[in-house]
Predict the 3D structure of the following.
Amino acid sequence: MTDAALGASFRDPSGFVFEHDGVVYRQVNRTYAEDYDHLMNSGLYAELVENGLLLAHAEVTSPRSRMDEDDSHYKTLEPEQITFVSYPFEWCFSQLQDAALATLRIAQAALRYDMVLKDASAYNVQFLCGRPVFIDTLSFERHKEGAPWVAYRQFCQHFLAPLALAAHRDVRLLQLFRVYMDGVPLDLARSLLPIRAWLNPHLLLHIRIHANYQRRYEGDTDSASKIRPMRKQALQNLLTALASATKKLRWKAEGTEWADYYDGDSYDECASDHKRQVVGEFIDAIVPSEIWDLGANTGEYSRIAASRGIDTKAFDVDPACVDRNYVAVREAGETQLLPLLLDLTNPSPSIGWALAERDSIAERSSADAVMALALIHHIAISNNVPLRRIAEFFASLAEHLIIEFVPKSDAKVAILLSTREDIFPDYSENGFESAFGEVYVIESRIPVEGSERTLYRMRRRATSSA
């Protein structure tokens, strides 16, 4: 039996994405046939796939979606499968910037083949093997001489405005994506950007003046007639200018709470070596195909899993940590590690139409194992989350758990307690084992040499909710 369109794929009249027997397919509708054929026959598709900019697909004869009752079907595509979908509000600054530049490279390539990119949504980009890849095959259409770039506003809202806000105001403003799914409104960006931002002529034109134009002509049914024809060369110049503006935006990944966490850590070199050894042994005992490292910092322990060829997601709440981790992935050409931004006390929820367009982080989990190293004290003490609730959440993400217990006598915990009353009588090794033991079977327990910390390997009890 075939399924209906996926939650994020119902707005495009050109086609939709659906799932059948665990495999994701894309239907191309007859209304898009001419543009699709030009994409495939012109050489544009081949160039983009060869350069790693567009998700590859194969044309298949089946399945057919049951939404196809009006005979709208033209082609069924089986794209390269994506096991995990991330969202722009989970990306660091450098990821969003790389996604923006990839989108512009695709748009520039399309023009060479007499096509234009009609959608410039950040949600059309995913990170595969350490690089941004465009996933929407139906976002191309034949170029019409004189027509403006229909995706210009979307690019500015999804990429240029949030990047400018992060660079000139505060990187945390990237979280506006959780509220504004179609990107940051340009009038909001204009009001939040400082005066110095307007010294950049690109930002002045593409955000401030663009926002003013939107406000002036909003609701004007005759506004289309006021748009000057845009020749192909002018469109190429616009894409070049946007690329220049995007490249020049800078945010330095420093000055945040945990970016230098490992400096002056509780471990000496011997203890660090032993911790890495035990973590590696635990991973080898589990043999996961996918592992999530929660509170990964800059990814030191994530790379123990990734180096074994394991698909590894490295989550952290600190934008600087995630950015440093991603830049290291990019520079080293790592393919198994994906750094992402996640606040465990307020994880990514289900959002969008009918709460189904963007899945929650738990709904997207296909991990076999979760790692939570040097993390439990931050959640339990800094955020007052009971140990049992922490265990239940971890168990909802994966069957296996590698976790480190950090006692109150540890220097890092002492820092947390130095400015608040100790109201955590159950935060002890016995209390930890008792709470987690209700949800997990403790399969291994190894003290970290040269420290007071302990590493555990656990397996979710059969009665615990998956």
